[in-house]
From TrEMBL:
Domain spans labelled Rapsyn myristoylation/linker region N-terminal: 1-80
Keywords: Metal-binding, Repeat, TPR repeat
Pfam families: Rapsyn_N, TPR_8
GO terms under biological process: positive regulation of neuromuscular synaptic transmission; synaptic transmission, cholinergic
Coiled-coil positions: none
Protein name: Receptor associated protein of the synapse
Source organism (scientific name): Callithrix jacchus (White-tufted-ear marmoset)
Entry-linked InterPro entries: Postsynaptic (IPR001237), Postsynaptic_CS (IPR018293), RAPsyn (IPR052480), Rapsyn_myristoylation/link_N (IPR019568), TPR-like_helical_dom_sf (IPR011990), TPR_rpt (IPR019734)
């Protein structure tokens, strides 16, 4: 496969990936990797594979391609390519929670002479290092790294990098329990997405919404937290972002736990898990969650006594009778109705809250 054909196939894979045909994109890129003799093309396709596997949550595969990319960069004998590949290696270890390795590879990046570290990629290296220090709970060094990354972003008018740093700062302040700042920085990230993100990936919007949801929950603004988390999950489902889907599921559980409606948190988790497995065509896992969802409904008796549909699966207006029977307002009880299904008064209060 020659240089022109390699370039065409890489672009074809990118088009498939951007249209959410991830598996087909991976097939195209893997064929390029197997058949192409163009080192530049191989380096670029390895970068695509690193990014794709990162967003799919396949971090061991991400690491494998990052290692191959370093070997390719050495063959090219280009310091900039070597910097980029070491950064991907640092990010791979960050995702795998190998934080000490992440910091080591970031220091390697910053020590490479004659590269773009001072301009384009230096901020990204500092961001990855900050995330690693945060993972190790070394808060002072984490904040120093984030502030350094933010300076890179401002000096180079890199709004995309600034957005990512603001989200990481949101996580930082959430951990040190300054919840006002934990909300401020993700809100700033959301502003950057609105102002500059027309051509960006929707993952930046999803990321900012998720971090806003976390902060709103910590501040006790549970309605706003739910709204932001639902928006983030919607985008994550559309783009097959499995790691973000998992984070949103945890956030949903925390929101329901904060409300005190523990049964509904289980229902929400099973319902969302069902939609994830359905979108991926994983039938065995899908069936397991459908069964567990209906078991939860039966255990808590959360169903309408008139239409028989479950309550708590989606937003619905409800009505409770003095006897504690509960039903959909749209169904409306007929005169003298005694109801087949029953839910406790505690459950009805949680649902109507």
């Amino acid at each position: 496969m020659g240089q022109d054909q390699t370039k065409q196939q890489i672009e074809k894979g990118l088009q498939l990936y951007q249209s959410n045909q991830t598996e087909k994109a991976l097939e195209v890129w893997m064929k390029v990797l197997e058949k192409s003799s163009d080192l530049m093309g191989r380096f670029r396709v390895l970068g695509c594979l690193v990014t794709a596997h990162s967003e799919m949550g396949r971090y061991k595969e991400m690491l494998k391609f990052a290692v191959v990319q370093i070997d390719t960069a050495r063959e090219l004998e280009d310091a900039d390519f070597l910097l980029e590949s070491y950064l991907n290696l640092a990010r791979s270890n960050e995702k795998l929670c190998e934080f000490h390795k992440t910091i080591s590879y970031c220091k390697t990046c910053l020590g490479l002479p004659g590269t773009r570290a001072g301009a384009q990629l230096g901020g990204q290296v500092s961001l990855s290092m900050g995330n690693a220090f945060l993972g190790l709970s070394v808060f002072q060094k984490a904040l120093e790294s984030f502030e350094k990354a933010l300076r890179y972003a401002h000096n180079n008018d890199d709004a995309m990098l600034e957005c990512r740093v603001c989200c990481s700062l949101g996580s930082f302040y959430a951990q040190v329990k300054d919840y006002e700042k934990a909300l401020f920085f993700p809100c700033k990230a959301a502003e950057l997405v609105n102002d500059y993100g027309k051509g960006w990936s929707l993952k930046y919007r999803a990321m900012s919404q998720y971090h806003m949801a976390v902060a709103y929950r910590l501040l006790g603004h549970l309605g706003s937290a739910m709204e932001c988390c639902e928006e983030s999950m919607k985008i994550a489902l559309q783009h097959g972002d499995r790691p973000l889907q998992a984070l949103c599921l945890l956030c949903f559980a925390d929101i329901h736990r904060s409300r005190g409606d523990l049964e509904l948190s289980q229902l929400k988790l099973h319902c969302l898990s069902e939609s994830i497995y359905r979108s991926k065509g994983l039938q065995r896992e899908l069936r397991a969650h459908v069964v567990r969802f209906h078991e939860c409904v039966e255990e808590t008796e959360l169903y309408c006594g008139l239409c028989g549909e479950s309550i708590g699966e989606k937003n619905s207006r409800l009505q409770a009778l003095p006897c504690s029977h509960i039903f959909h307002l749209r169904c409306g009880p007929p005169a003298g109705w005694m109801g087949a299904g029953r839910v406790s008064l505690r459950h009805s209060r949680a649902l109507l809250a």
